[in-house]
Design a protein that fits this description.
36% strand; single chain; globular; alpha+beta
């Protein structure tokens, strides 16, 4: 875990979590994974996106601009958002995870209405942001940010500021039209 600027543990503030809104799995084949979720467990429909340029307009890794690309499929089980990610290009937290653990549950998502305040609060609690992406909504809103929490709680937390509107998915599976 990377602590922020040598912050002593006894001086760190708490970073409160009120609700987990999403669980994400990193998968080697998003087509196979969505098909298995749909056919075996009845989870779907799945909305597919390619995250990277041009959809995600601003991306950083350890605070420096970077470009990466991944396939994303979104669905729900009850009120819980299920996200599947297949890494495609670039230096990402997903590739680090696969190299260290193999495929599986990568992160838990926490919704926020103010990303900058949430990142500041995480930093005040001694938790660094490792990677983020912003501007994926049609109004240049929407922001996600991964926190360096794996050494603390054995998984990564993702802060999510959902866009007010979503771009239409590239496709939906199953296509019930």
């Amino acid at each position: 875990m990377m602590l922020i600027a040598n912050t002593p543990l006894n001086n760190m503030k708490q970073f409160p979590i009120k609700e987990i809104a999403q669980i994400c799995l990193v998968v080697p084949d998003i087509e196979e994974a969505t098909r298995n979720f749909q056919e075996r467990f009845g989870v779907g429909p799945w909305h597919f996106y390619t995250y990277g340029k041009p959809l995600v307009k601003r991306m950083t890794r350890h605070g420096k601009p970077i470009e990466y690309k991944m396939k994303v499929a979104l669905s729900n089980i009850g009120s819980m958002r299920i996200e599947l990610i297949q890494p495609m290009e670039g230096d990402t937290v997903y590739r680090d995870f696969v190299e260290k653990h193999g495929y599986g549950i990568h992160h838990l998502g926490i919704l926020t209405e103010n990303m900058q305040d949430s990142i500041r609060m995480a930093e005040e609690a001694g938790i660094a942001m490792t990677m983020d992406g912003a501007g994926f909504g049609p109004d240049d809103d929407g922001h996600y940010a991964y926190l360096d929490t794996e050494d603390l709680v054995y998984t990564t937390f993702e802060l999510i500021e959902r866009p007010k509107r979503r771009n239409p998915p590239e496709r939906i599976y199953p296509d019930n039209s």
